[in-house]
Amino acid sequence: MNYLLLPLFSFFIGIIVGLTGIGGASLITPMLIFVFQVPPSIAVSSDVVAATLMKVVGSIKHWEQKTLDPEIVKSLATGSVSGSMLGVGILHMIRQSGTSNLDHILLRLLGVMILLVTVLALIQLLLMTFFPKFNLPELPKLDVKTKWGRFLTITIAAVLGCFVGLTSVSSGSMFALVLIGFFRLDARKLVGTDIAQAAILLLFTSLGHLTLGTVDWSLVIPIWIGSVPGVLLGAKICQITPQRPLRFIVYAILMMVSWKLVAQA
Description:
Blueprint: H1 5-20, H2 25-34, H3 40-65, H4 70-97, H5 102-130, H6 147-167, H7 173-183, H8 187-212, H9 217-237, H10 243-264
InterPro entries: TM_pro_TauE-like (IPR002781), TSUP/Inactive_protease-like (IPR051598)
Pfam families: TauE
GO cellular component, one term: plasma membrane
């Protein structure tokens, strides 16, 4: 393991995250597996803990700026944390049973999740680029102040949270699609709400992964050292960088990564 290369690579991934908003887990976990030959179970757990710091720092900033919706954050977090604990519980059961190879299962799950998130985001980007006037049928708008709206929000968040607990992927990306589709928040509150719910989700998910004993702090700390300044730099220069060509390139990379994960499994 080259611990000088890890913060350097994490720095560049942090820049991509800051520039495009594409989730770090989709890039950092495959990097740990393919570049540094880290077993998938350790890569997933270490990435969950590493990602938590970035999300917490971001959510505090958005809370201070009042650029989030606390009611939606509360409902999403209620469901996602419960779902995440279920996902971590499933990992515990698989590990204790000894009948299945945890790393093999995680490789396939990671590949499928990254592919799903990438395809959905790519379709959205293609529609915005080539068919700007094309209107998709609108999903029903959810109101968390009603019992039915809160129930549906918690249920959707629980399903997504379970996958985050299992794979570390999509704590932000899939929830952002939910916020766009079901809540239609303005741009500033969309980002702030997404980051805040992800911070709460990852905080509890990381505690769950710590109980698995698969968190490697010699990976987490170099990732922090590289990714945090990278995210800050990426956020600074995003205003002068053309977003769509950059996103197409990153999505193409993610498609190849997801295919390799599934094929290797």
